[in-house]
Design a protein that fits this description.
This protein has 600 residues and is α+β, with helices and mostly antiparallel strands. 30% of the residues lie in helices and 23% in strands. The strands form five sheets. Strands 6-10-11-22-21-20-17-12 form an eight-stranded mixed β-sheet, sandwiched between helices. A five-stranded mixed beta barrel has the order 1-2-3-5-4. Strands 13-14-16-15 form a four-stranded antiparallel β-sheet. α5 runs antiparallel to α7 (247-266) and α11 runs antiparallel to α13 (401-421). It starts with 17 loop residues before the first strand and ends in a 13-residue tail after the last helix. The mean pLDDT is 93. The chain binds one RNA strand of 78 nucleotides through β1, β2, β3, α3 and α11.
Length: 600
RNA sequence: GGGGUAGUAGCUCAGUUUGGUUAGAGCGCCGGCCUGUCACGCCGGAGGCCGCGAGUUCGAGUCUCGUCUAUCCCGCCA
């Protein structure tokens, strides 16, 4: 019996016809004389009615109907009586009266309910162990469909824009200055290793040298870093690169892609172009290079107020070139001791010496460990600048500019969360705050390594007007780098690249101070390639999992990956990673130092 | 590597504050009844290494220490 319809298909117009359905038994309601089965497939649910009085053949077998078993059923499509119509079901105006049915496969009782609402509350590790059952839930199948839709929209759009999809190797070589990598031992090259590509970066630039002009790929990338809700050890990037373009071309291209995605999947019209925010402004106002601007609580700079202050802690920082910044967590003066300690611990963990505050209590004087050091003029200026009212809580941070900003930026997010829990701050879920963050510093000084390291990667071109700074004061040079941010989340980033071999060599040698043989070994082929007529080019990589996660309204990208890994990088369903045999290791010319196998 | 939260029946949880009889509920499961349900209803039943291991105690689901797992965060993510 071949299926004639999917379970979400039958309508009033089908009444009178005969239908054959395949599917899983969603629920059974046995009334003795009549038995209702909700039959489910990937397209929906149809009610099938079994009447034991119709035939003995059917009545003999009805006890076999159990949830999650797979059946094929043939029957007549029948109108439902008025009071039997189920308005919550797309097929709710009809039902199929079974004439015959066959069990295709029985199911054991599932370990958790295959339902959208109840299933959501089940422990995630159990659901991941039985991911094939978890994915059966309509809401999860809908996510897979939605991800497919997003990919199709992206591919169609890129095709229209003249891009060629090219696959690049996943087996690459180790590039230790980036993220930690997954190493793959080479059997035929004893003692040597591949690394799984953390991105197709170098290959896509070579494609530009090759004259591809417009490349894209939905590229799987691998990074052996610790997990987060928005990170997986393997993830997918919308990776692309273009020749003969400037930053404006890139902005327009990506904005068009986002517009098409949001229209196609959410029927939301995005306003173009997206705003652009300099790194400096983002840090100054929000303390983050990917600020969530859907709520206020902006940072303020207090250097002008406290310059020459008698409060030495502030004055000393200002005189040594640092900044005093503050944030008013409006309405949070009822913060608990525990919450305050949490914020302070967080700030000190990020390198703060402490977290000074003023509590403008209701019905009482301000409470603060530092207020006594302030002059009356300073207090008055502070009250005006920070717009302090009863019930407010103001946090201070005095440190180097970047550190002061980023610590208060984190305090800002936590304070917003505390306010949200109290019902004093609400974020409109219909707001899509897209914007570009631009003019990042090209490099940052790494205290640990005692040298400059690339803020993005060493192939990012400096702003034309900042190029002379590479010689004069590298830390002031800004790069032609851009990050796409949405609602406080980094969706992706990229840059216009260096295409001149001399400049690239200079960045490696003089700015990043990499040894010559390291440059030659790791990047020699790139610099060499640039000597053969490399076109000016630039690119970007967007986190597809994050984008789909936002389009699906899920909190974690695990929800939009068919078979995700846990925070420790394990697949609970297939139990990977797992041990290998001694022979396998020998063939690969490696020896494990772990004597006892880890218990699982 | 560090900090927080959680772990009790197949699932979701209560019980832990103040140690004390036989560890409970809802859903699911099994059996019976029921011809219009769609969270069907009614009757009955089975089901527990209270994550694991030590310790304190006459006595531990409950207190202490350790450990494992998941998750959130910091570090990390060119």
């Amino acid at each position: 019996m071949k299926r004639t319809h999917h379970c979400g298909e039958l309508r009033r117009s089908d009444i009178g016809s005969t239908a054959i359905l395949n599917g899983w038994i969603d629920s059974v309601r046995d009334h003795g004389g009549v038995l209702f089965v909700d039959l489910r497939d990937r397209e929906g649910v149809t009610q099938v009615v079994f009447n034991p009085h119709r035939s003995d053949a059917i009545s003999q077998t009805l006890h076999q109907l159990k949830p999650e078993s797979v059946i094929v059923v043939k029957g007549s499509v029948t109108e439902r009586e008025n009071d039997a119509i189920n308005p919550r079901l797309a097929t709710g105006e009809v039902e199929v009266h079974a004439e015959s049915w066959t069990m295709l496969n029985t199911s054991q009782t599932p370990p958790f309910p295959i339902e959208d609402l109840k299933g959501d509350r089940v422990n995630e590790d159990l659901r991941l162990t039985y991911r094939y059952l978890d994915l059966r839930r309509p809401k999860n199948l809908a996510v897979l469909k939605r991800r497919h839709r997003a990919c199709k929209i992206i591919r169609d759009y890129m095709d229209e824009e003249g891009f060629i999809e090219v696959e690049t190797p996943m087996l690459f070589k180790s590039t230790p200055e980036g993220a930690r990598e997954y190493l793959v031992p080479s059997r035929v090259n004893p003692g040597e290793f591949y690394a799984l590509a953390q991105s197709p970066q170098q290959f896509k630039q070579m494609l530009m040298v090759a004259g591809v002009e417009r490349y894209f790929q939905l590229a799987r990338c691998f990074r052996d870093e610790d997990g987060r809700a928005d990170r997986q050890p393997e993830f997918t990037q919308v990776d692309l690169e273009m020749s003969f373009i400037d930053r404006e071309d890139m902005y327009a291209l990506i904005e068009g892609m986002m517009q098409r995605l949001w229209k196609g999947l959410l029927d939301v019209d995005l306003d173009l172009p997206f705003e652009r925010l300099s790194y400096e402004d983002a840090m100054n106002n929000y303390g983050s290079d990917r600020p969530d601007r859907r709520f206020g609580l902006k940072l303020a700079d207090l250097n002008d107020i406290f310059k020459g202050s008698h409060f030495n802690v502030f004055n000393r920082v200002i005189e040594s070139g640092g900044h005093v910044k503050a944030i008013n967590a409006k309405g949070l003066s009822d913060i608990t001791e525990g919450e305050l300690k949490y914020l302070t611990d967080m700030a000190t963990a990020m390198g703060a010496k402490g977290l000074a505050f003023i509590r403008a209590r209701k019905n009482g004087p301000w409470k603060s460990p530092i207020l006594k050091f302030f002059s009356d003029a300073e207090i008055a200026a502070l009250r005006e600048r920070m717009e302090i009212e009863e019930g407010d809580l103001v946090f201070f941070m005095a440190a180097g500019w970047e550190r002061a900003c980023s610590i208060l930026g984190k305090v800002r997010l936590e304070a917003a969360e505390l306010l949200r829990k109290r019902g004093k701050l609400a974020i409109d879920p219909s707001v899509w705050d897209f914007f570009w963050v631009i003019e990042f510093p090209l490099m940052v000084f790494d205290d640990e390594a005692d040298r400059f390291v690339s803020a993005h990667h060493p192939f990012t071109a400096p702003l034309v007007e900042d190029r002379h700074l590479l010689d004069e004061d590298p830390k002031l040079a800004r790069g032609q780098h851009y990050d796409l941010v949405l609602n406080g989340m980094e969706l992706g980033g990229g840059s216009i690249r260096i295409h001149q071999p001399d400049l690239q060599q200079k960045v490696f040698e003089e700015v990043l101070q990499l040894p010559k043989e390291v440059i030659e070994d790791r990047f020699g082929y790139m610099v060499n390639a640039f000597r053969y007529g490399a076109p000016p080019h630039g690119g970007i990589a967007l986190g597809l999992d994050r984008i789909v996660g936002l389009l699906c309204g899920t909190g974690s990208i695990r929800d939009v990956i068919a078979f995700p890994k846990t925070q420790r990088g394990q697949c609970l369903m297939s139990s990977s990673p797992g041990p290998v045999t001694e022979k396998q290791l020998r063939d690969l010319h490696i020896r494990s130092r772990v004597v006892e196998k880890p218990r699982r």
